[in-house]
Design goal:
Elements: E1 49-50, E2 57-63, E3 66-70, E4 76-77, E5 89-94, E6 97-102, H1 103-106, H2 113-117, E7 122-123, E8 132-134, H3 138-150, H4 159-168, H5 172-178, H6 182-194, H7 200-215, E9 220-227, E10 252-254, H8 263-276, E11 280-282, E12 288-289, E13 301-308
Parallel strand pairs: 5-8, 9-10
Antiparallel strand pairs: 1-2, 2-3, 4-7, 5-6, 9-13, 11-13, 12-13
Helix pairs in contact: 3-4, 4-5
């Protein structure tokens, strides 16, 4: 990928959720999506993993397509022979929201991180009132408790947010059910599309930066994109590579990629994401092809994307 501007990539890390097919009874990886605007963002991807013999939890994820280890509250492993004695009824403070539940409810699925936290092998922090503290989305935790108590699945409108926390707590049984919800399934499909393009989220951020820069002197933030799935290779010896090709006006080049998806799908993904984040876009123009011909037509083309500020 080449960039004809000096604009830097975004300083902020956006959360993307990558949802992968879930093997039964296994904890899945969640690539945080989400959106930049905390619409169920799904971007901090998390994979709870209890390292055997250490009791240390670690989350790994992908941010802007790069694998990274993400910060996770790490339970303090106690010295051998001194287990924590939890009461049978547990008062909880989850992100500022108070709950009371049975210890057996929290430990219903022994392979989950939630059960490991209250197994007695770890010291769990308490708040000032003596409630055990969990640093996650308190409003969503109620749906997790209801699943643990009676197997009920959250309603569609909160399925994405609950999916994120269910992944955080390693509740594979709940994740299996949530992946069949339309909102989560839709994110799965959309993210699968984006993962087929090279450095998709970095490209999206660069497009926004370029549009802002170009709109400083003009309310219209125009960005010319050279998007290509495969490299064009001339087949005639007298083809002039320096023919003043249309792609020389491009601000950004994206490609090539090995997947069979075409350039139109890339533009659709890009425009959909920008619109959902609140940008005012004009529909992109149909691709503008190069007019050069000398024994062979130049196959290169560009798209013009316009953001109105």
């Amino acid at each position: 990928m080449t960039d004809r501007t000096d604009s830097d990539s975004s300083d902020s890390l956006e959360d993307v959720i990558e949802i992968r097919p879930l093997p039964r009874r296994n904890v899945v990886e969640l690539q945080d999506i989400e959106s930049e605007s905390e619409q169920p963002t799904f971007q901090r991807s998390a994979e709870p993993d209890l390292m055997q013999g250490t009791g240390v939890f670690r989350r790994t994820g992908r941010i802007h397509g790069k694998s990274q280890e993400l910060p996770t509250p790490t339970p303090r492993l106690l010295s051998e022979g001194s287990p924590v004695q939890f009461p049978s009824v547990i008062p909880l403070n989850v992100g500022g929201v108070k709950y009371v539940t049975r210890l057996s409810t929290l430990c219903k699925y022994p392979d989950s991180m939630l059960a490991a936290l209250f197994s007695g092998r770890h010291a769990v922090d308490k708040d000032q009132s003596g409630c055990f503290f969990l640093d996650s989305n308190g409003s969503m935790f109620g749906y997790i408790l209801e699943f643990l108590r009676n197997g009920s699945v959250p309603p569609n409108h909160v399925s994405v947010a609950v999916y994120k926390d269910a992944n955080y707590y390693g509740l594979s049984h709940l994740l299996e059910k949530l992946q069949l919800k339309p909102e989560v399934a839709r994110l799965h499909v959309r993210e699968a599309h984006r993962q087929q393009f090279p450095n998709y989220y970095e490209v999206k951020n660069k497009v926004i930066h370029l549009a802002i820069d170009n709109a400083i002197t003009n309310r219209l933030g125009e960005v010319i994109l050279h998007v290509f799935r495969t490299e064009f290779v001339p087949k005639v010896p007298n083809f002039n590579p320096n023919h003043g090709c249309v792609v020389e006006n491009a601000h950004l080049s994206v490609g090539p990629w090995s997947a069979s998806v075409d350039e139109e799908l890339f533009m659709k993904c890009l425009e959909t994401d920008l619109i959902e984040e609140g940008f005012n876009l004009k529909p992109h123009e149909s691709k503008k092809k190069c007019r050069y011909f000398h024994g062979q037509t130049c196959q290169k083309f560009v798209y013009r994307l316009q953001i109105v500020f």
